[in-house]
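Q: Given only this backbone (317 positions), what sequence would you predict?
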């Protein structure tokens, strides 16, 4: 029988669940007086992140890019004085397809002025408890998680002990290139599956994984990235930062990303220099977090694959 490709892959019940979930998210922020904001999803600038690729489009004959997140636009609004705000809408990433990924997806991203990563992490826990009806919330540092399950300190372990640990616990056909690759493999293949069924809030990541977060000493005096991730049953849902506000450091990180992409023969995109200008103008101290709505809906409804919660995924778009 011929497949009816005009039809949605999600059931009508799932689509109604999606609408109800979005309404509850908006209610959550309305009660906290956080303003919904719109930013462009098409820009002449793109992400510099070495691990994310932008989808290219044409704008008046010139290259343009679909936004991988609303981050740059929201931060420009923060620098303009908008205050606490959130975005709830589409984001796009090249090459993201599978049971938990679609190139076009729905992202929730919000910023809290005057907050740090710890305060925002607690609010993420409140949102997830509200939407998923889960009571169990565990907060622990990145170091604590590695010590608990693998007996090593991810901030001080050398490359060889990390490679040995990775080889012992992850089935690989290659040798990891560096410390961060070892840590990422151990996290995704060994540690995430061992997280409990409740909400896990993980904080104080290695400084080398700071992305756009501040780097500050932890309680042992070692520099760590002031960022966090939120998981439910080992499924990553959110990634948050105590946001970098230093324009000079932001420019340095953009340029370092460009060098990395060039050295690894990855496409080098034009970075968002207007964010650097916004930081020079004075973006307020704040914390921000991005959360995947499609994955959240999968958990809320007990769905196993992302096409069960998206009307028309990439194969039918």
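A: Predicted residues:
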């Amino acid at each position: 029988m011929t497949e009816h490709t005009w039809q949605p892959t999600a059931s009508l019940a799932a689509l109604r669940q999606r609408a109800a979930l979005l309404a509850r998210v908006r209610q959550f922020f309305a009660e906290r007086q956080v303003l919904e904001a719109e930013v462009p999803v098409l820009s002449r600038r793109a992400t510099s992140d070495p691990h994310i690729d932008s989808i290219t489009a044409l704008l008046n004959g010139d290259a343009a890019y679909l936004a991988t997140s609303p981050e740059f636009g929201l931060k420009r609004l923060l620098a303009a004085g908008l205050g606490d705000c959130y975005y709830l809408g589409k984001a796009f990433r090249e090459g993201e397809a599978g049971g938990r990924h679609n190139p076009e997806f729905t992202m929730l991203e919000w910023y809290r002025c005057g907050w740090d990563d710890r305060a925002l992490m607690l609010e993420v826990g409140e949102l997830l408890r509200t939407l998923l009806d889960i009571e169990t919330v565990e907060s622990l540092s990145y170091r604590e998680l590695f010590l608990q399950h693998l007996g090593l300190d991810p901030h001080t372990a050398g490359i060889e002990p990390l490679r040995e640990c990775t080889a012992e616990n992850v089935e690989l056909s290659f040798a990891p290139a560096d410390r961060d690759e070892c840590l990422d493999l151990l996290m995704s293949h060994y540690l995430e599956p061992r997280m409990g069924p409740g909400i896990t809030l993980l904080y104080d990541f290695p400084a080398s994984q700071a992305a756009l977060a501040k780097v500050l000493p932890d309680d042992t005096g070692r520099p760590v990235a002031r960022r966090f991730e939120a998981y439910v049953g080992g499924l990553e849902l959110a990634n948050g930062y105590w946001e970098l506000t230093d324009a000079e450091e932001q420019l340095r990180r953009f340029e370092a990303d460009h060098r990395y992409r060039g050295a690894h023969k990855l496409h080098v995109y034009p970075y968002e220099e207007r964010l650097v200008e916004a930081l020079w103008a004075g973006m307020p101290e704040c914390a921000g977090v991005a959360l995947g709505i499609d994955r959240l809906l999968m958990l809320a409804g007990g769905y196993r694959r992302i096409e069960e919660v998206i009307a028309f995924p990439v194969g039918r778009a």
